[in-house]
Each structure stands twice: as structure tokens, then as C-alpha cells.
Amino acid sequence: MSKSMYGRSVSIIGVGCTPFMYTVDNPETNNLTEHELLGYAALSAMEDAGIRATDVDYYFHGQASPLAGSNQLTPNIHCGNWFGMKGKGSIHHSEACCTGYLALDLAANYVASGKYDCVMTGAVEFGDSNAYPNDSVETPKHPYKREKVTMEKFLFTTKWLYDRVYARAMMAPMELIYDDAAEEYVRTRGITAEQMDDTLNWMCINNRRNASKNPLAIVHETYQEIAEQNGFATDLDYLRSPYNPRMGDFLRAACLELKCDGAAAVIVCATEKIPEICKNLKHKPIEILGVGASSYNAINPHFEIRATENAVKEVYDRTGVTGDDLDIFFANDFIITSHLISAEIAGYLPYGEGWKYICEGRTAYDGDKPINTNGGRTSFGHAHAASGLADVYECCKQMRGECGERQVKKLPKTAMLRGYGGAQNVAAVVLKTIED
């Protein structure tokens, strides 16, 4: 029997998400601000919950890198007008790519404590563009104009995530962690490098099939379609080719995130207060049973694996949930091996066998063990802070049966979302549909 790890039950009553996009590439979205993007997501979440801004007591604002991507150090203060919360209390927070997952925990804790009954938590990121001119954080910025972020400039900012005193000496800078999970999996599960290569490619294929059915995803063209355009018979042939070059011993180019822009928001409410606050709620609430958390910096060997083990154990111990209870799984797979190793650690896929499930297509939206039905970071896109709440959005939609063509076969009742980011914070979120 599962139970909440909070002092009082807290449930998700509304979700909202923008399309993930390259805003500066489209005249219709160029010059949008963070406030407008977050406003769209926040108002959508309130509409979904059937409430107004006056029903919300407090809000959280998440952004992974406001110093690099924004124009303010306190962006939460400047966005409230865009969704009717001028004058309400708020906090800005940043946990890099884990921001959106921990955003849910922050909101749940505020409600569980009894301080507030209804809280909005939102996150926004311009992962593909920065405030203009993008030459230095010290340079005065244009109030709304933005410019594309080259990979060179993006990687320059990621050094802020790492311990620059000891990381080099401990052999753990960013360039050396990408292959860590794949190497560890090959070594401990006894599969070959060729089998791992196929597994990585199949994760890309499955993510892209999921995204192709998702109107909010950054890309919709399947790898089979891309393969045929380039003269290959199959998607796997294409992904094994120089069109998808290796970036190390294992990972290829398609295995990494598509950084982009977007926002997402979630409304949480004390479960006991839902009849009073949400008189127009048209769907079942989804309870937040708990969030396990762990953090290691990059000088720790296999830090993503160790932190995931810790976070999963905490939430399982506190809620009574096990891997056998999970019906759907999400992982922040900006390094695509994340969804293989975390699904095995969580017991959603059997230890040492997860790669077979992936290569057989069983983890796509139409398989029996769906993972990242929105397309994940490699196909839905990665708007850093917003990605976690975008996953919560997709998970809730799946649990309500509202995902159309990509709706999973079995309506999920219990879900896990494994967040990861910031060299590195890890969160293991467990959600469960409240039955009548």
C-alpha cells in the first residue's frame, strides 16, 4: 500500500506547457520574453485546473541560468504581472537541468506544511538564445532582443556547473562524463560495445517516434524518414553511419539534447481543499506521493548512477512504492543513457535486460514499458529548467488519457520521473492518480 511522504496530501490539479521551439528562428515568436513564455504556461495551467490567479496563494519561478540567458537576477519579481499574480509572494530558484523536477517538490512542501493551500510552480528557459548582445554577462542587454547561442558559447557557460578547483585533477570535466553510464553498463551487464551502440541508437529512434506524435515537440520527422531522404534503407543504418558521428567511445551526436526555448507550469493544491478551491475541475487529481533527492558533484565516480540509486531508494522507502508499481517512466535524458540506467535502477526495467526492451521497441509510446512519451530531451527538446515540468505535463496528460495518437496502451496509475542536472542534482518523483 503506497502512502504520501508529506505531512498532508498534495495533488496536481493543473498543467500547462508551451511548444518547445527555436524562438528567434520564427518571426511569430522572435522577441518573446521569459515573462510571456512563462505567462502562457501559467495561464494554461490555471485554465486546466479551472481556477483563477486569485485562487493561487504563492508561486515559484525556476530558471537554470538567469545570469547567462536572462536580463535579471530576480526574474520571479518581473513576471507576476503576466499571469495575474502581481503582489503575491514568490521565490526564484535554479538547480540547472533538475530545476523543473525540484520545482514540483518545492511547491508540494509549501502546501504540505499547511502554509498555503494552492501554489503554482513554473519554469522557463531560453536554451537556444540569450539576451543580446551575448558577449559577456557584464554587457548591458537589449530589453527584449535575443540572439542564437552557439554550442561554443553554451559550453563556455557549463563550466559554472563544475568544481573548477578539483575537477581537472580528478578527471571529471564535462567532456569525460558523457560516456560514463554507457561504459559502466557495458562493463557491469556484460554486453558488447556493438550491442550498446544499437541500444543508444534505438533510444534515439524510440524518442523520435514519440516526438513525431507530439505537437509540442521541437522535431517531428522520424529517423526512418530522415534515413530514406539520405539513401538509407532503415533508421538504424542511418544512425550507424557517419551522418551520426561518434563523440567518444560510445555516444553519438543524436544521443545528446536539442537545446531550445520553452516554459511549463503546474498548479498543486492540498488534496483535502480541492472541492473548495477547484469547483470546476474536470479531471482526476494526481497525487504527488513523494520526491527522493540526492546530489553529487562530478568529482565522484559514476555520480549520476549513485545519486539515482539514493533518490530512488529514498522515495521508495518513504512511499512504499516499488518498481513493479510503475506504469510509465520519464528521465531527463539530455545524455540519452540516462533513461536506460535510471529505468533499471528504479526497477521499471529488469537489471541487465533493459537494453533488450529498448532494442525491441517496447519503451516507445506503443510498447508495454513506455519511457519519455513526449520524446525526451533528444527529440522533444531541452529548455533546461522547463524540461522537468514539461515532463510532469506529459505524465499527467498520459495519466488522464489525454495524449491522442501517442497515448500509451494501458492508462497509467503510478509514474516515476527521474530528474537530473547541475553536475548533478537528482530527483525521483512519484505520482499516483487519485481514484474515486
UniProtKB/TrEMBL annotation:
Describe the location of the Thiolase C-terminal domain by residue ranges: 303-430
Which keywords, in A-to-Z order, does the entry hold? Transferase
Kindly give the InterPro entries that the UniProt entry links to this protein: Thiolase, Thiolase-like, Thiolase_C_2
In its UniProt record, a GO molecular function of this protein is:
acyltransferase activity, transferring groups other than amino-acyl groups
Q: Give the originating organism.
A: Agathobacter ruminis
Can you name this protein?
Acetyl-CoA acetyltransferase
Pfam families xref list: Thiolase_C_1
Keyword Transferase applies: yes
